[in-house]
Amino acid sequence: MTMSKFLLGMSLASAVFGAHASVSYNATGGMTSAQPVTATVTFDSGLPGGFATYDNPAAVIAYPGNSGYAAEPPGDLTAFFSVGTTHGQPSSSSVTFGGYGVSYFGFFMGSPDNYNSVDLYAGATHLATITGAQMAAAATVSPDGNQGVGFYMNIFSSTAITKVTFSSTQDAFESDNHSYIAAVPEPETYAMLLAGLGLVAAVARRRKA
What we know:
There is one protein chain. The protein has helices spanning 2-13, 132-138, 187-208; strands at 23-28, 39-41, 52-54, 60-61, 65-66, 70-71, 80-83, 92-97, 102-110, 116-122, 125-131, 150-161, 163-168, 173-182. By secondary structure, it is an alpha+beta fold. Strands 1, 2, 4, 7, 9, 12 and 14 form a 7-stranded antiparallel beta sheet that branches. It has a 5-stranded antiparallel beta sheet with strand order 3-8-13-10-11. A two-stranded antiparallel ribbon has the order 5-6. It starts with a helix and ends with a helix.
């Protein structure tokens, strides 16, 4: 009985994510997010650490890029983020978020292609894949790699996102100005955490007695 209460408490204490995720997205004009974001990563000083941690510095391309394998998003006059298959680019690269994760993630995308994709995760749970074709459709453009095309992708999730992975099976998937809104636990999450911690504390007291 004591062990079952302990396991129940641990389960409640770790219940940070909702049971069902709802991911939605849209595309807007401009190079930056229109949302009231927590922060924006511009890559002008390399990769940040801390709350938003990127896994591969080789994904940062210095301006002006190269039209043959990693073209800067249109109008972008600074360093940018790119994944691809040649010239030292990683074919995929991720950003991992601390705390409770993020409820919103956005990025300025250039030259959309069918072979681009974004994967969203909540811990070990895969929430969604958004393909290059879907991103292009959201912006009402063709996924044909036109280097003169750029738009801002906005991704929203009812379940906190803890990791975003950019992937491309060809050259390349170029983006910049990654923005996010840090997730805030819902009241019921606080209640579950408190209940779980209370049960754990009660079991610890009984064992000590």
